[in-house]
Design brief:
With 142 residues, the protein is mainly β. The protein has no helices and 13 strands. A hairpin with a 2-residue loop joins β9 and β10.
Length: 142
């Protein structure tokens, strides 16, 4: 039996498609954009570590970059639209999973964007002070 999932953000509801679960990592598509979300165990409950704002009655949430899209298979993709505050890596840098790559400001909040993989930075697409849209590459890996 195929399970169907929806995500509610505020008053909007989104259908999740192309869902795959591997350990604590969940990959899915929303409105054609692919995302990876890490689950983290806290206080004897499953909490989603994803994108958005946390409320006491909602799961704890923090920004995690979505999986690379077909258009940018070796790239870390912006999970949200925002202005690039800083880029914490340089071309040639070796990064680990979960390492902060950049910080985006969205809705007057700074959101650290963390690497979804280990690798070497090949190209930096994002520049401080420049707006990026959801789904645009921030950096590319070798």
């Amino acid at each position: 039996m195929k399970r169907e999932y929806t995500a509610r953000i505020g008053s909007r509801e989104f259908s999740l498609t192309n869902i795959s679960i591997s350990g604590d990592l969940v990959n899915f598509s929303v409105l054609g954009n692919q995302y990876s979300v890490a689950l983290e165990e806290k206080f004897d409950e499953r909490r989603i570590v994803g994108f958005g704002a946390a409320r006491p009655s909602a799961p704890a949430v923090r920004a995690v970059a979505p999986a690379a899209s077909n258009a940018h298979p070796n790239a870390l993709i912006a999970p949200i639209s925002g202005v690039v505050v800083s880029v914490a890596v340089a071309v040639g840098a070796t990064v680990a999973v979960g390492e902060v790559i950049a910080v985006l400001e969205a809705m007057k909040m700074e959101n650290p964007i963390k690497s979804d993989r280990a690798g070497v930075i090949k190209l930096i697409h994002a520049k401080p002070g420049v707006q990026v849209r959801t789904g645009e590459p921030i950096v590319s890996f070798e």
